[in-house]
Design a protein that fits this description.
Blueprint: H1 2-11, H2 18-35, H3 42-49, H4 53-57, H5 63-76, H6 90-119, H7 123-150, H8 160-176, H9 183-193
Helix pairs in contact: 2-3, 2-5, 5-6, 5-7, 6-7, 6-9, 7-8
């Protein structure tokens, strides 16, 4: 079975080199942070990663998809842990989560704004961004609020889905308009959600 897999890989080209994936994602994220999304070219990314142009296009269709995947991985380092069902007060978890999100956006907010702009011109990419980035984070917050409601921490009359949408709307609005995203905003959002 192993030899069939190898033969298949050889028939369609070289086996995928994971180190090339990492080099491309790392180079893309570093360059976008340094220069801004619009000023970074595919040529610059492949030169910084030390790979061939086809290596990139064998993995991602566009620069936006590559940068988005690099950002996904960066976000994945913190996005799930703060909302685990570990007995911590939901309000404290949500505030810590928002502070982490805002700290990440301080570094990659410009990148995300550029990705959102790119998504407006490409329906497939917009769907990819929404399904892989936006909706999973919204679902995490909604689940946390449902647990808070079950545990008596959130008023049973409040709607967790609407609250989650409002929370995300507040910080996406601020991100897209260049307003500050900080611990004060995180605290204000949490206070509003958990008010009685």
């Amino acid at each position: 079975m192993q030899s069939k897999t190898n033969n298949s890989d050889r028939a369609s080209g070289r086996p995928r080199d994971i180190s090339a994936d990492e080099a491309l994602k790392s180079a893309a994220l570093r360059l976008v942070r340094e220069k801004g999304y619009g000023k970074v070219t595919i040529a610059a990314i492949i030169a910084a990663a030390g790979v061939a142009r086809q290596t990139l296009y064998n993995r991602w269709k566009t620069k936006a998809e590559l940068v988005l995947e690099a950002v996904f991985e960066e976000v994945g380092r913190y996005a799930a842990a703060p909302l685990a069902d570990d007995g911590t007060r939901a309000a404290d978890q949500l505030e810590a989560f928002l502070c982490q999100v805002f700290a990440h956006l301080a570094e990659d907010g410009g990148t995300l704004r550029a990705i959102i702009a790119a998504a407006q011109d490409d329906e497939d990419f917009q769907r990819h961004f929404r399904d892989r980035f936006v909706l999973p984070r919204e679902a995490m917050v909604t689940d946390l609020l449902r647990r808070a409601q079950t545990g008596g921490e959130l008023d049973p009359e409040r709607d967790p889905e609407i609250l989650s949408a409002m929370l995300h709307g507040a910080f996406w609005y601020r991100l897209l308009n260049g307003y500050a995203l900080d611990a004060g905003l995180a605290r204000a959002i949490v206070d509003e959600i958990f008010r009685r």
